[in-house]
From TrEMBL:
This is Fibronectin type-III domain-containing protein. Residues 171-181 have a biased composition (Basic and acidic residues). GO terms for cellular component: extracellular region; plasma membrane. It comes from Gouania willdenowi (Blunt-snouted clingfish). Keywords: Glycoprotein, Membrane, Secreted, Signal, Transmembrane, Transmembrane helix. The chain crosses the membrane at residues 143-161. The gene is fndc5a.
Amino acid sequence: MERFFLLVLGCLGVSRASADSLSPPVNVTIREVKANSAVVSWDIPEGDPVIGFAITQQKKDVRMLRFIQEVNTTTRSCALWDLDGETDYIVHVQSISMSGTSPLSEPLRFRTPREAETQASKSKDEVTMEEVGQATQLRAGELIIIVVVLIMWAGVIALFCRQYDIIKDNEPNNNKDKAKNSSECSTPEHPSGGLLRSKV
C-alpha cells in the first residue's frame, strides 16, 4: 500500500525528500457521519507553510480509492460524499506546500450507518433549518390570506353601509309619495277613483 501512495506522490512530481520535510496533518477526526456522507477535519502543525490539502478515501478491502485535492485554501475540513451505507472506509489526509506534499496522516477508519438508522437518529423534536424555512413560508402565506380576507370583509361592510345610507335617505320620501298618491286616488265618497271622476 505504501508503494502505491509513493507512486501517487511521484505522479504529482513530489520527491520523497521534499515530502518528508512537511509534517502530516494531526488530530484527524470524522464527524457528521451519515449513510451517504461525512465530514473529515484535521489540524496542521504550527509553522508548516501549508497551501492546501489532499485526501484519499478508500473502502476497506477495496483497492479503488478517491483522491481529493484542494490548493490555495486554509480550510481544515472536507465533505466526503457519495458514500455507501453500512460500509467501512479508510481516510488519509496530507498537507500541500509549495515544496511538495507531506506524508500521509494516520489512517482514520469509520463506518457509515444504514439509511434507516440515519433517519431514526433524527429526533422528533429536532427542527432543521429547512423545516424552519418551510414553516416561515407557511406563516407568511397564512398572514397574506388573512389580510386579504379582512380587506374583502371591510369592503363588503363599507358597501353595505353605503347602500343602507342611500336606502335610509330615500325611505321618508317614498312614504310621503305613497301617502300622497293614496290620498289623491281615493276618498271615502269615491273609493275607486278621484273626486272629478264622472259616473257612467
